[in-house]
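Marked as duplicate of an earlier ticket. Keeping the data here for the record.
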Amino acid sequence: MTGAVRLQVSELGKRFGGVIAVKNMSFDLRAGEIVGLIGPNGSGKSTVMSLIMGLSRANSGAIKLDGIDIAGWPAHRIARAGVSIVFQHSRPLQRQTVLENVKLALLPDSLLRLATEAAAAERARTIAERVGLGGVLDRHPWTLPFADLRRMELAKAVARDPKVVLIDEPFAGLTAAEIKVFSDLIRTLRDEGRAVLLVDHSVKSVAAIADRVIAMYLGERIAEGSADEVMQNETVRRVYIGGRIETVERKEVAADRASTLLDIDGVEVFYGKANALDRVSLRVQQDEFVSIVGLNGAGKTTLFNAISGLVPYRGAIRFAGQELKNLTAAAIARSGVVHCPETRELFGHMSVRENLELGGGHLSNSERQRQLAWVFDLFPILEQRQAQAARTLSGGEQQMLALGRALMMQPKLLILDEPTLGLAPVILGLLSKAIERLRHEHSLTLLLAEQNVTFALPHSDRVYVLDHGRIAWHGDPVKFAEEMSTGYL
């Protein structure tokens, strides 16, 4: 049963230069309630959390805690008033034990207040045991598994008996079993009468625990209600999957190992102790277009970075029969694996033509000119803008330039990471047509990562769904539309 309104956010606004990060954001958070805040990357979720906690100052609006406006207060004063935050990334004191880290959160913040060592130690022990750390109290943080580090951050956040708990990305890097345990811990906060605001990329994990869900996009609230209501909201589905799913029948692609171009076997990637990829295995055949779909934070970019030699991994990745693990990123690119990253990584002060020519730097002059003419034919706007600095292009034009530069390298396998991110529908149409031309006019194998399945599926021979760093589903696009169109979120 929910209680009185603890936190009231009204018409909240935040700008970073000319970028509007949060716009007219309003919601209430009640005692004994878990509210989930969801939305794609760049929606403004973490900014809202920072504004509430006083880590960033709002340009407009009010943030009231029990009726008192705390907007503009410093973070330590907000914490003292009854708001705690569980950060996504743990930064414990490595030389102190788990018990000492939790006890530190209990120390008075004023020299005029006293706390006995015995009382603080006993309170810290009780809190640590309640979140499942009873068996590791005397260990140091660097010896703990990732899930225990998350528990310790939660223990530190509740040490001051807060009224409101903000939790940022609690499920990132956790296994399915650990997510269940951590979800139960969060529910205990609600059962104790605390108000909980939860942000996470895993829509399903948030939906399973939240009493109410708020969806954001481009800094604004686009939907609010129960998890089911928000998940079925047309605007929310369009933001996450791009709209109505349409598929195109594709010819069967040979599945024998002799025609396998990329073979990924049991790949694992860790960021510190967080497991970003968990025994991922997949195959891509010669001339096949394969899509890796999944929500933000699922591990798509990490997988592509592993293939490209940008992050260390366990397991095996073979391209055209050659093991890639011991090759540098440059050697992998020279072998024909060309990665067009989500961040584009253009040279902003160089011209469009100079960026393209860098991609074709390994070609002879005549071959480079032929390749450049082909890219200009594929993207005529780049020819018109060839003398213009890359940083002055629109977002869509920059995406075309990043793809054009990758194509200048004459890839055997093109890795295309989230090409639709932040682009207008008209630009999506141009990119879609360009990809279909690549399919029909050239021998090219494509590995595409997308959250927007509406864009990905019409180009795909096969689809893999990546969820929490694991392959959750695999099949053809028609089967995806039948089996996953309602369950993807």
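See parent ticket for discussion. The domain at 5-241 is CATH 3.40.50.300 (Rossmann fold).
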